[in-house]
Design brief:
alpha/beta, elongated, about 575 residues
């Protein structure tokens, strides 16, 4: 507590003048679910001292004009690195949107730079008006033995990091197969978290029945992987303390059919839950162009409300319930002793239009703009030299076969959906090389300077021409390249390496679009506007090459070895349902 409670006691009774008095608001009381009309809020230092109808003496007064007042929004699970901007730039982007507190999982930079990467996220967010708390990455790498990350976190490293300032728990425990099968590494990490009485955040996709019961029995208390409302209900009914809901409109891109129908069904199903205190909201991975054009956690809530979710319950799920989950007991409501994180809305509660944002007692944003600049913390040079890889040749992208000529059965990854699967199909071989007409070549190069591994694979329902290369490739973030032309694959890969990280789209020997991400190969120190526009150009370029990428780029997730069902890493093709390597050419 930064403001002495003795002074709060005096300020609450008018014995000390408040620093700020917000008069005449319609307070959304997240404890009772009521709307309290004509309410005044007294702020002393960075805390709330008073809530009621008295007009206390104050050094500064804000006329609430009967606007709705809600607590600052709390994002319970996100990866700042996925926004492709650094924490100070991220704060610039989300504070005007009403987000005042975030619980980040820095497992992207952790997979590249290890504990040093986690320290950089802490250091770069130390003096921001945005409160940044850290959950220790538990899956570095995400799938033990199936991929090469830039570091390896076991119980020893997790134990150390849980003792650091602003570290509050274990981040998404996504290797759920290892949890339910009691593999030593994950079991020891969970034991360390339990020893610290830390928040244990989860990631268990479509688990149900005995496996879900086993997962929950460990003490893991929440999961954000709820692609269907039925999955969320199943977890709640099994006793999971919290489920976290992302923007259903963004999730809808993963499923066939109209977006509105999916979102409406998602919300209407959750509405049947009488007690919604266990339903939280988060953004998880939000791309820079979406963050720029559509918003942050405010958009998640607005979307839920639009499709029929109760607006007060939506606010509660991103404030008091979120704070309770994260054990941030000085946040989450507009009540005495809590941090003065207050958002005034413009118009109705249903619209949830952010008008004025107060963080730690200071007005930080108004009408969608910051009221004062945020210092841009510069990352050290060693964080900008993490792509330790020679430039590939065209031959590096050609798949050699075990026969000289003829037909050969091969595993093909079907990329029609983010939930990929293998099919066994015949391919033609000439002079020992697989002919890839009508298919896309996948290549993953270990880029951390640890093994020098390379793995090649084949895909369908992907690019029809050209290529894309990226050092964003979850979660180990090796160099992933996908293309229909070996020349364009080489050009895209070479350009990414020269930039020391980023995303590049090429076709016919020309760079169509690129985003330079030199910080760990994941982030830019440029403002959101610049990075967001560049990312939008990447999507437009991919559309020209035959791949509509409305949400998460498929090249970013095809390497994620813990997501169903067919994946590729620097080591092998992965049957991720069974967590095992499988050969490109089945016997």
């Amino acid at each position: 507590m930064t403001t002495d409670f003795r002074e709060l006691v005096k300020a609450a009774q008018g014995e000390l003048p408040c620093d700020l008095l917000i008069q005449n608001v319609r307070l959304v009381n997240v404890h009772t679910g009521e709307i309290q009309e004509h309410t005044n809020i007294g702020v002393y230092g960075d805390k709330i001292a008073y809530v009621g109808d008295a007009r206390l003496e104050a050094k500064s007064v804000v006329d609430g004009k009967e606007r709705y007042a809600i607590p600052g929004l709390i994002d319970t699970h996100l990866h700042i690195e996925s926004s492709q901007i650094t924490p100070p730039r991220f704060a610039e982007a989300v504070l005007p949107r009403g987000t005042t507190t975030v619980a980040i999982d820095p497992h992207e930079i952790g997979n590249v730079m290890g504990e040093d990467g986690v320290k950089l996220m802490l250091e770069s967010s130390r003096h921001l008006p945005l409160k940044v708390f850290v959950m220790v990455p538990t899956c570095v790498p995400s799938a033990e033995g199936l991929e090469t990350a830039g570091a390896d976190f076991a119980a020893k490293e997790v134990d150390e990091m849980l003792g650091w300032e602003r570290v509050i728990g274990l981040a998404e425990i996504m290797d759920y197969d290892s949890v339910v099968k009691l593999r030593e590494r994950m079991t020891n990490i969970i034991e360390v978290g339990r020893k610290h009485n830390a928040v244990l955040d989860g990631h268990c996709m479509f688990l149900k029945g005995e496996a879900l019961n086993a997962y929950i029995s460990t003490g893991i208390e929440a999961c954000h992987e709820n692609f269907t409302p039925e999955a969320a209900l199943t977890k709640l009914r099994a006793g999971m303390d919290y489920v976290k809901i992302r923007n259903p409109r963004l999730q809808a891109y993963l499923f066939p059919g109209p977006i509105d129908e999916y979102a409406k069904k998602f919300v209407s199903t959750l509405k049947v839950v009488p007690d919604k205190r266990s339903i939280l909201f988060c953004t998880d991975d939000i791309m820079p162009d979406f963050l720029l054009e559509e918003g942050h956690l405010d958009t998640v809530l607005r979307t839920m409300i639009q499709y029929g979710y109760d607006p007060v319950a939506a606010v509660q799920g991103a404030t008091i319930s979120a704070a309770n989950h994260l054990r941030l007991h000085e946040s989450g409501s507009i009540t005495p002793g809590k941090y003065a994180d207050i958002v005034l809305l413009k118009g109705s509660l249903n619209d949830l239009t952010i008008d004025l944002v107060i963080a730690n007692g200071d007005v930080v944003a108004e009408a969608g703009r910051l009221t004062k600049p945020i210092d841009v913390w510069r990352f050290p040079e060693e964080s900008k030299n993490t792509v330790k890889l020679r430039t590939p040749t065209e031959d590096d992208f050609r798949i050699r076969a075990p026969i000289r000529n003829g037909k050969l059965r091969a595993r093909i990854i079907d990329m029609a959906s983010v939930i990929t699967h293998f099919s066994i199909e015949e391919v033609e071989v000439r002079d020992w090389i697989v002919q890839t007409e009508g298919l896309t070549t996948l290549a993953v190069f270990e880029r951390h300077g640890r093994s020098g591994n390379k793995c090649l694979g084949l895909a369908k329902n992907s690019l029809r021409k050209g290529a894309i290369a990226s050092t964003i490739s979850h979660d180990c973030h090796n160099l992933a390249v996908m293309g229909a032309s070996v020349a364009d694959m080489k050009l895209a890969a070479q350009t990414v390496i020269e930039m020391q990280g980023g995303v590049v789209v090429a076709n016919d020997g020309i760079i169509l679009a690129k985003v330079a991400l030199p910080v760990a190969g994941l982030m830019s120190e440029e403002p959101l506007e610049a990075v967001g526009h560049q990312m939008r150009d990447v999507r437009m370029a991919l559309r020209q090459l035959g791949k509509e990428e409305s949400g998460f780029l498929s090249i970013w997730s095809i390497t994620l070895a813990v997501v169903p069902s067919a994946r590729i890493t620097d080591k092998c093709l992965v049957d991720s349902d069974n967590q095992k390597a499988v050969p490109l050419f089945p016997s």
